[in-house]
Design brief:
alpha/beta; Elongation Factor Tu (Ef-tu), domain 3; 2 domains; 7-stranded antiparallel sheet; 7-stranded mixed sheet
Length: 285
């Protein structure tokens, strides 16, 4: 647990949509490993949200998070500036990524998941694994962490839906091609939107390649007590916070996960609308 952590760097990666924060949190930075996440509280009365540790620098005592501005809490977090403090952070949470030497690892990332996946690619690179990254976005301007990721991969493949950069199409097309041509692949790790992780798992299944996905189920306490983040894996109930967030992609019930993620949509919409109204009034006053 770390309280009152100062933001040492803020960078809008995609203005108004995706932001990087480097936060002074030496206790978390000292222990953070690829795959870990934190739970953030921005206000006394607000909700707790999980965000992946996209990088950690033990020497500087900082961690980096990259988040999509989606609803009220991420919008509030995005109002903070360099020098401001985040109310509290809890972490590092979750089981770290299993990183062992051997073979070629393909890291597949989509959207904000590319930043989270970067930490995993870095871990595999450091133990000497051959790392191939396959990243995708709707269009070139929405592609995150290309330069950061390039430092820790041997091969990089990019796809955009509109063809503005790299292959025109989906990451799964590049993945299938790589699996068909490279017999050294020992594992595929996917981090991104649920439909992407489901599609990646369907592509890898016939190849019999170990497939790890990082799940983003709704989470509250992050320490295994509330059960909000439960998912079905291999027909059994597991908690994303303490049993994951990474699971065998071939065993996850993605349709149930998708349905559970949508459970609170009307309340989330209402909460965002009232936040926007308040923010608008404050600007006028
Ligand atoms: C282990 C884990 C790691 C994550 N890492 C990242 C990350 O690195 N970057 C990033 O942008 N997002 C990440 N997420 C998702 C992030 O937590 C949600 O986008 C965030 O909680 C949205 O909150 P909000 O109030 O802004 O939006 P809301 O309007 O409240 O919700 C928008 C959508 O976000 C999801 N969501 C809402 N509340 C939660 C919650 N408490 N827990 C999980 N999902 C929720 C739901 O799908 C919801 O429909 C992660 C989720 C998990 C479980």
């Amino acid at each position: 647990m770390q309280t009152q952590s100062a933001i040492v760097k803020k960078k809008e990666l995609i203005p108004g949509q995706t932001t990087l924060l480097e936060i002074h949190a030496p206790h978390i930075a000292a222990k953070a490993q690829p795959g870990n996440f934190i739970i953030v509280r921005v206000s006394e009365t607000g909700e707790r949200i999980p965000l992946t540790i996209a990088d950690a620098d033990k020497a500087r005592g900082t961690i980096t998070i990259v988040f999509l501005v989606l609803g009220k809490t991420t919008a509030l977090l995005n109002t903070l500036k360099e020098g401001d403090s985040i109310l509290d952070l809890c972490g590092p949470l979750g089981k770290p990524t299993c990183i062992e030497p051997g073979g070629t690892v393909i890291c597949v990332g989509g959207g904000t998941g590319i930043a989270a996946m970067h930490h995993i690619a870095k871990g595999h690179w450091r133990v000497g694994n051959k790392v191939a990254a396959i990243i995708g976005a709707r269009t070139k301007n929405l592609l995150l962490f290309y330069d950061e990721l390039s430092q820790f991969v041997h091969e990089m493949f990019v796809s955009t839906n509109d063809g503005s950069f790299g292959h025109k199409g989906l990451v799964t097309e590049l993945l299938r091609n790589k699996l068909e041509t490279d017999p050294t692949v020992s594992e595929v790790v996917a981090v991104g939107p649920v439909p992407m992780m489901k599609a990646v798992s369907l592509v890898t299944k016939p190849f019999g390649v170990k497939t790890t996905v990082s799940l983003n189920s709704i989470m509250i306490d992050g320490i295994g007590m509330c059960g909000a983040c439960r998912v079905t894996v291999n027909g059994e109930t597991r908690f994303t916070c303490v049993d994951g967030p990474e699971f065998d992609g071939h065993a996850v019930d993605f349709d149930e996960l998708n349905a559970r993620l949508a459970t609170f949509k009307p309340m989330e919409k209402e909460s965002m609308e009232s936040y926007c109204k308040c923010a608008h009034h404050e600007k006028k006053d």
